[in-house]
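Q: Protein A?
A:
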Amino acid sequence: MNFSYLVPCEGRRNRICLVRGVTTMNSKHRCVKLNDGHFMPVLGFGTYAPAEVPKSKAGEATKLAIDAGFRHIDCAYFYQNEEEVGQAIRSKIADGTVKREDIFYTSKLWSTFHQPQLVQSCLERSLKKLQLDYVDLYLIHFPVSMKPGEELIPTDEHGKLIADTVDLLATWEAMEKCKDAGLAKSIGVSNFNRRQLEMILNKPGLKYKPVCNQVECHPYLNQSKLLNFCKSEDVVLVAYSTLGSHREDKWADQSSLVLLENPVLCAMAKKYKRTPALISLRYQLQRGVVALAKSFNEKRIKENIQAFEFQLTSEDMKVLDGLNKNVRYITLDIGAAHPNYPFSDDY
């Protein structure tokens, strides 16, 4: 899986898809072909923001991202901003900037909806907020099942997570039904380790393979073992926290290293006359990883789309490989006691 050679995607205006040995025709909207035949742009725009950030900011940033050239928008029920993001997408359709089929929109099934009978209702809630007929990709957000209800993170009086026991294979069957119903074009997983992904892939009577596994991935956590496994199974690895800069108290280890201040990355940025963020994004694209870039800053949004405009040498790719420290910013410790907590395994 290499994103260097791309041609226009069938049925997608201005889309580009992967075909080996064909010269690149355009610098924007490059796509990878998924195992179900659909196409995913290899550079996506992330919309998560901490609770203190006004929800309207996600909508404003999504409009800026579409204007800058992003066509892959990554969101989730858990982010609680799909209404604003949906409005932004629809406004860009209304003003003629894009058509619905030009946008690749991802949403995610939250952990309080893992019970099979609840799966479709979570997607329908997202669609209602978005005012869209379908999502392009629907993911199981996190393998840790939580008590159903309106609370996003249900906890007891001691602040301990109230977990639920659900067979994720039954959850996956309900995801397959969402695809059959036309509510999601493609389905996949997020934050699954190799063992959990393999469990889905080896499911008796599997109808649809996950098209992707979205995980934290950046030069300090390059996920090389998981990436190789995903490639061997024709599952795309999608990287979040690609810039390693997520510092929210609730989820992130505040003592962890700041990736974009790494001297090797900064020196490389100087060499290529780019930003450290662009070096990090380009690194992922050249490894065959779909990269999500999150910023609500107009200048940085416009800058991030430039990841297609240069190429790192194979020597520099090896140097960046050497930065791996297995540092995970998003540990989601609240779910650590759950049997499906994914981050205890090696990968």
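Q: Protein B?
A:
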Amino acid sequence: MAGEAGKARTVLLATEKAFAAAAVTKIEDVLKAANYTLKKLENYKSKEDLLAAVTDADAMIIRSDIVDQAVLDKAAKMKIVVRAGAGYDNIDLKACEGKGITAMNTPGQNANAVAELVFGMMIVSARNNFDGTSGFELVNREIAFYGFGAVARAVHKLAQGFGMKSFAYDPYIPADKIKEMGAEPVATVAGLFEHQYVSLHVPLTDETKASINKELLGKMPKGGTLINTARLEVVHEADMIEVLKTRPDFCYLCDVAPKELVPSLHGLLS
């Protein structure tokens, strides 16, 4: 964009949950070198804030922020939307196409960060939130991955270091390739839930939405733990609440709590 007939360009960094300061500094440096103007909308509280901010932006960088028809209708100058993360479920691709706006994402770029988040949650959980009781070790425990892309493989690498056994199901990766990468291939999604830990690494699609239900969760062994750093919507929320109520041994680890069910979850997880 910059350099096109010498025109000035404005890039909007719109993040409801702000990037780390170091990441913002890097973005600022790159844009400054390209003679772009950076406009920041961090930790905003309402959709109206975003609608107002996009009016003069030529490009936009987001995280899991929702870019829908309403946003794009306000963004008369917008040429590109870039999501810092994998998947496009928070971007209305049809609306982008209709307005000639390019949508891009950055799959794999945050793989290590998410992998460390997964293991951080697992360790805290295994050690009973450091409440003074002993908890248990992760060595020789089994972890199964639904989806075996960049993030799952980064978690798998850490799991190997902890002496864990990995299993994986991914409809887009042949079983022999999964085995080559050091995990045991699983033939079905249901087969994953025979293991103590199940880690979700799938996009939000019509097939995956609310697909992690009571039937699957009921297959998990005593002390079973579901880890969701993918999308909230892939888990059937009502079923999850029911399982948490009826199985005190079951654990759900997620980096974002469902907004509508926060009071129920707080009572179960506190």
